[in-house]
Automatic annotation (TrEMBL):
Main location group: membrane
Protein name: MFS transporter
Originating organism: Phytohabitans maris
Topology within the bilayer: Multi-pass membrane protein
InterPro entries linked to this entry: MFS (IPR011701), MFS_trans_sf (IPR036259)
Subcellular location: Cell membrane
Length: 411
């Protein structure tokens, strides 16, 4: 019944299609940019530094992203973000035609991350304007499943394209998909659910908007605990993709196509997560799904550097992505279920800004550790730490099965 209703929903389906296309293109840059840095510098530390700068940009943007999503027309904001990223990523292949300029990546990637943060916050705030409240978890699962399906083919094609024509060709594809997504969003209609008496006046935006979101998070015991634990988990996992690219491409000396296959295989984890998360949450509850997912992630991360078999690395990476996918869908759905629409952008922005704060440091530390002490030692320590955070989760309100039923005072 839910499936048929969502399929017949014109606006949700169009939103679904164009964003899936955009994610497919985005997965090209996901592979191509680390490869571009690896080819130009041969340094995993440089890859980690770029990831860290993107993380800093994401955090700084998070201060005002939620306020924008709660005050400005959300569809227009999504379109502006897509157009901006299309222009930014198109600059890379254009400049590389004349002469490779690694410094340009340190400009484009952080700016792209800023627009991506605004887009993600607005996207989360937009979903309740597309589907009914009881379908939010299923809608998130469907979007995640198709995004992941697109991301499976993306890295493979990006690896092949990078091997044949260079990583900049793959980045050009990403720019085109952002442009197509922007056009598609022009035809999506959103339901207006903002309460009367909450006018969206951009001139009133200030740092207090972030405080409003933080206050709501703090008053909800489960969201408060999630934010605090994810603060550590982001530190432990943000640089993992760089480490996998470096490990497979440099230490195991495999070609770009193999790197693409590994990352494509890992994306299957999100597809599996999307299919199981809704029934798993209904059967086992929120706490068991979230805590169990990150415990599984910790075990898989610890094993990545212990093997020199590429298929095993791919399987473990898939397990990590599966765990993060289940936990992430549960977390995002919970925020959408318990947050009033007029606060959803600010709450989402505050949530991501806070828990991402250590991410840039983590990416830099993890990649520097991999360069200094080796991938096996780095992934073992990271995996064990991730497992310990999951154990701590059992001692917090996260362990509750139905936290969406908690009543929280709106600030």
């Amino acid at each position: 019944m839910v499936s048929a209703s969502l399929w017949r929903d014109r606006d949700f389906t169009l939103f679904w299609v164009v964003q899936t296309l955009s994610v497919a293109g985005d997965s090209f840059s996901y592979v191509a940019i680390p490869l571009l840095v690896l080819r130009g510098t041969g340094s995993v530390s440089q890859m980690g530094l770029l990831t860290g700068l993107a993380g800093v940009s994401t955090i700084l943007t998070g201060v005002f992203a939620g306020a924008l999503a709660d005050r400005i027309d959300r569809r227009l904001l999504l379109i502006v973000c897509d157009v901006s990223r299309a222009v930014l990523y198109a600059l890379i292949p254009i400049v590389w035609i004349v002469s490779p300029q690694i410094w340009l990546l340190y400009v484009v990637v952080p700016l792209g991350a800023a627009f991506a943060m605004i887009f993600r916050v607005t996207y989360v705030a937009t979903l309740p304007n597309l589907v009914d409240p009881e379908r939010i978890t299923e809608a998130n699962a469907r979007l995640s499943a198709t995004y992941a399906a697109a991301a499976v083919g993306g890295p493979v094609l990006a690896g092949i394209l990078s091997g044949l024509y260079g990583p900049t060709a793959a980045i050009a594809v990403d720019a085109v998909t952002f442009a197509v997504s922007a056009v598609g969003l022009c035809f999506v209609r959103l339901r207006v659910r903002t309460p009367v008496g909450d006018p969206r006046r951009p001139e009133e935006m200030s740092w207090r908007d972030l405080v409003v979101g933080v206050r709501f998070l703090w008053r909800h015991p489960v969201l408060r605990a999630l934010t605090m634990l994810l603060w550590f988990l982001t530190f432990l996992t943000l640089g993992l993709t760089d480490i996998i690219v470096y490990y497979v491409g440099h230490e195991l000396r495999r070609p770009d196509t193999t790197v693409g296959y590994v990352l494509a295989t890992a994306a299957v984890g999100t597809i599996i997560a999307a299919f199981v998360v809704a029934p798993a949450r209904r059967s086992w509850g929120f706490g068991a799904c979230w805590i169990g997912s990150y415990a599984l992630c910790g075990l898989a991360i610890a094993g990545i550097g212990m093997t020199r078999s590429v298929p095993v690395v791919a399987a473990l990476a898939t397990t990590v992505v599966f765990g993060i996918g289940v936990a992430g869908i549960c977390s995002m759905s919970l925020r959408q279920e318990v947050t009033p629409d007029h606060l959803l952008g600010r709450v989402t922005s505050s949530f991501w800004t806070i828990h991402s704060a250590l991410g840039p440091v983590g990416a830099t530390v993890l990649t520097a550790s991999a360069a200094t002490y080796g991938v096996p030692t780095t992934t073992l320590l990271s995996g064990v730490a991730c497992l310990l955070v999951a154990v701590v989760g059992t001692l917090t309100p996260i362990r509750q099965a139905r936290p969406e039923r908690l009543a929280v005072e709106v600030p």
